[in-house]
Amino acid sequence: MNTRENIPCGAWSSPALMLAALTVSLVFLSLPLAAEVKDNSLPLGWLQTSVGAHAPAAPASYKNKVFRIQGSGRDIWEEADEFTFVYREKKILGDGEAIARIDGYENGNHWTKAGFMMRQSLGADSPCVFSFLTPKSNEAVALLYRKSQGERSDWDESYPGEQTPYWVKLKREKTHFTGSMSKDGVHWVKTGEEDIPNLTGPLFIGLAVSEYPLKDSRGKPFVNISHVKITE
């Protein structure tokens, strides 16, 4: 085999060899950089952002099929939201449903919210719908929604859940949305349903976690979420 030592001087600057070296470099650069993919990175096609004007959360992680997300922001409520959003880059285009199991909360307080959300845009005042769980009153579950941009949010009656882990579901049928809860992921109880005409076309879909900071909070909340599944 030839080595650089036994190739005549100047041959390395020939057009043919330079082209070969460039080709090898481009092939190398096109290979997956597996060594740079860490165990706790988000799944391919998932992104994180902070909705609303507030300090962003720490990077979310994904390991052993469990999302670990730090809550941030004032709340998901009223005319504008502030929260951490870990969402699928590909929007949901039509009918479908999303399921997740809220495995547990660390820190936070009784109004920390976590669950599946669909929203028209990443703007803080966007129309949205949110099937969520809180630690309030033994894990309360509800369907929250904002029907028009900048409108005050509302929700259907909340239901007391049980201790985590607990499941939430959000289903879309055109502009009709249904929230459900379950303690086993098999038997479901409806938590609310709403027609939201302004939630139409491609929608952002993902996991939302808010902080709802209080003076006596024990620190920023972390929520572990598993069994995440979106079907269309």
Number of domains: 2
Main β-sheet, in a few words? 8 strands, antiparallel
Q: Structural class, judged by helices and strands?
A: mainly beta
User: What is the CATH class of the largest domain?
Assistant: Mainly Beta
Annotated CATH topology of the largest domain: Jelly Rolls
Q: Residue-averaged pLDDT, rounded?
A: 84
Shape: globular
Order of helices and strands: HEEEEEEEEEHEEEEEEEE
Tell me what portion of residues adopts beta-strand conformation: 35-45%
Q: Would you identify the regions where 5 or more consecutive residues have pLDDT less than 50?
A: 1-39
For the termini, the CA-CA separation is 56 Å
Question: Helix coverage percent of residues?
Answer: under 10%
Radius of gyration: 23 Å
Question: How many β-strand stretches?
Answer: 17
Give the CATH architecture of the largest domain.
Sandwich
Separate helix tally = 2
Can you describe what's shown?
- With 232 residues, the chain is mainly β.
- It folds into 2 domains: 28 residues; 195 residues, Jelly Rolls.
- It has 2 helices and 17 strands.
- Strands 1, 6, 8, 9, 10, 11, 12 and 16 form an 8-stranded antiparallel beta sheet that branches. The protein has a 7-stranded antiparallel beta sheet with strand order 2-3-17-7-13-14-15, with no helix packed on it. A two-stranded antiparallel sheet has the order 4-5.
- Strand 4 and strand 5 form a beta hairpin.
